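Checklist before submission:
- one chain only
- standard amino acids only
- sequence pasted in full

Submission:
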Amino acid sequence: MRICVSLFNLSFLLNLKNFNFVNSLKTKKTITRLHFRLVYREKSTRKLSLSTIIALARVRMKEKLDPAQSLNCASDELNEQQENPTHFRCDTRVSDDLSRIGDGDSPSASHVHVNASNSQSEVAKDPASLNHASVAPFQRKRGCQSEDDSTTPLKVQRCLSPQEILSKPVDVLSLSPSTHVLRSPNYRGPLTPQMCRRIPTRDNPPPSTSTWLEIFREWNHAERVMGLDMLLNMCEPLQIRHLWAMVEPKLKKDFISDLPKELALRVLSYLSPDDLARCSQSCRYWDQLIEDPLLWKMKCSEVSTIDPKGTPLRRSKWLEAHNGRPINDWKQAYVRYHELRSRWKNGKNNPPKVLKGHDDHVITCLQFSGDLIVSGSDDNTLRVWSAKSGKCVQVLLGHTGGVWASEMRENIVISGSTDRTIRVWNALTGECMHTLYGHTSTVRCLALNGRTVVSGSRDASLRVWDIDTGECLRVLTGHVAAVRCVCFDGKFIVSGAYDYTVRVWRAETDECVHIMHGHTNRVYSLQFDGKIIVSGSLDTSIRVWDVETGRCLQSLVGHQSLTSGMQLSDSILVSGNADSTVRVWDIKTGACLHTLSGTNKHQSAVTSLQFSRDFIITSSDDGTVKLWSMKTGEFIRNLVTLESGMSGGVVWRVRVDSTRLVCAVGSRNGTEDTKLLIIDFDDPKWNY
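Returned file contents:
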């Protein structure tokens, strides 16, 4: 508060010896308490005079009176001080301060300071004029009518009577929580019953309130708005603050609690998980609503955090035992997804496992499914590894040439070799279930769908096989050069070859539906989602085709060399190129969204890539595996960095799932051992 009495003046006052009522310690404490009470209760910006404090202290020492009596007694004290100037020198601000304390410093009250100390000093020499000198400034300040306006200011002025006061504009002085006093700023006499009235309440409103409300009720909306605007312009800040305190709670509406549960969940489903976590702290009902498994199932479906059976990834028994609330499996699945994403970004992973077994040969193909990892090599073998233990479970022996293609579904492995055969294996037992003969050259690519596999060979043909019986169902001929890549969705077979063309075949017959011309060099890679075909070629271009019409929809230009690997998801395509760059495309518009390059780009050809909703993972001949942001294309960090990188060390292949990264590592000059690296980012507390 800005009202204060200087401690110096107060200490001076307490040390005065010519006042009897100040001599006692009790009186000193009372004055001190009164001082601080006035400091913290007074709302005016003006200072209280010492005379005011003395007068009020004297009243408090006599007896405990109500506010009205205290003011009257204080006025009597002032009169006594004015009549005995030798005992106490009156300060003309005392009456004004007492009035201001009583009325709470009403905005309409008139507070005009008059400093008459000099006049009092002069008049004090003449005892006959003491009363005139001490009272005249107070009366002039209050605007009392002078008996003779032409006389000097020290003459006594006549105060107005109560009848005259009641006929003049009044001011409101608060005396108690339930009483108002109506007084004129010019009136300083005693209070009368006519000057008091009760404070208006809801039960006892002002007489004109009902009339005003009735008029307001009859107005239309536009009239009410205009009336409220005019009313607000007339209000003072305190009144507007009171109005806001009443209006603000009415504007706060918990509409979620009023909606049916199904609609409330639908509304909440549009919030992000971070927002849901904040909303759950609002109230108990919102917390219970946000814990609904259906809501978190929708959130999990947005990030594909669902296993193939459609059930959430469950939390471990350890966490269930340490959680007092019922387990919401879908929510915990999302929590696990969030934690995994953070661990991928921040490098919080378990110590990598190193799997050696192909000696110094090249690992040509890599498959990863569940807990099983299958690697194929030019040493004529395939090896089955356990991702959890890091041990070699089976060695698949039988091929007489290097293995250059493989496919895997659950525990079934299909492999193609330079020995011109295709073999079907049981990965758990190591048994060769079928050996498929028919091709006359190296089997270079495979595509598995259900119980049917399609093989492409350097003999320029494709063959369709039943893996249960080992029977060749169809032979597809038409290409005039080696078939390098093939895709199969159960209805259509798409093949790319060294004859610069892409062909579409019907799986049920040997009919070639479309022959797509456009590339000017060999086709090395394909992606097919059932409607859209994407082909990458040595001519540096990537083309997008419509499988139904065979028409070229887009030609994606930007790479400078062979596109060695691609992945398609919805309308987003990620391509890796021998020019050491990776690009992210929108195949609907043909726009390049991101180019993964810059100071942290690969220093050699990109050999493999995979991407998810959040990340892109790429490997290269420079011996590194890099992690990029799918959303922004920014480099995050290196997942793997070989010591022999850029001096012969190579990462040939990468495969990932939500928790693990598997890399096939080696070298072309013996600087790096051939091996598999398994990096697990899962927290040990999770168990599934």
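Reviewer check: The first strand starts at residue 171 and ends at 176.
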